Amino acid sequence: MNKFVFVLLAILILCSCNDDKAEAPKEIFPTDTLAAVAGVPITQREFDEATEELDKEFKDFIATAAGKENFLTFLINERLLQQAASANDIEQSAQYKQEMEKLQKEQAAAFKEYQSYILKKLLIEKLQKDNVISVSEDEVKAYHRKYPYQIAISHILMSDPQKASTVMREIANVKSLDGFAEYVRKFSIDPLTKKNKGLLQPFIPGEYLAEIEVPAANTPAFQPQGFIKTPLGFHIIMKVKEESLSYNNAKDRIREILEKQKIDAYLDTIRQRYGVEVIKNEAE
Known about the structure:
Elements: H1 3-22, E1 33-37, E2 40-43, H2 44-51, H3 56-62, H4 65-87, H5 94-129, H6 137-146, E3 149-158, H7 161-171, H8 177-187, H9 210-217, E4 225-230, E5 233-244, H10 247-274
Antiparallel strand pairs: 1-2, 3-5, 4-5
Helix pairs in contact: 3-4, 6-10
């Protein structure tokens, strides 16, 4: 074989090797692949799922070409960080394992809470369907005829009955909300109303505490009443306003009142059936 033929064959062999390398089969990705990191694809489906929980403003931006490019870059960077974390054995670290154990406990607690919520929700729906706690329009109308109004009051809440008694004696002759509000500011322990002159949300009888509703309904405005014991503490109250409510404005609230009353009655029934024992800690 002459030298020319040998060189020609060598060139052909090299070209053949290069062609094989150039034509090596590429990695096959799903047809909706947008990018790949370390050989793992990021698909359009994953992209769409990642945007599902975003606010509408972000979704509108991502719908644009620039937005899609930016969000894809974000997903790529996230995948790169995951790869780097894996390469640095972060998954084997004690801190990572502690965080994952904490997360598992939180998820288990959240699942248990949601499970309880669904059970109660379905039971309420069944009780409504079975007319155990359902409320008729006639019942709502009858309640509105009895209580066609709402009451607004201001209150002072205290934990010490002796102090409440002293304040009640001092406040007996106060006849204005502003005057009452001074005592609210000095003595009330209710953080929700203290900064607003002690004013509660106006209520229809049945929406608040019965111990408060009865004296509020039966006394004139701007006359301090108390002190009144409730599960919250000791109250001194002042009626600020009583106003009529139309049926249309009251009916939804009344329906909730009546439904709650029926749920309470149902709970009393099953409490007797299953038994409830409150065990107090003697150390308390």
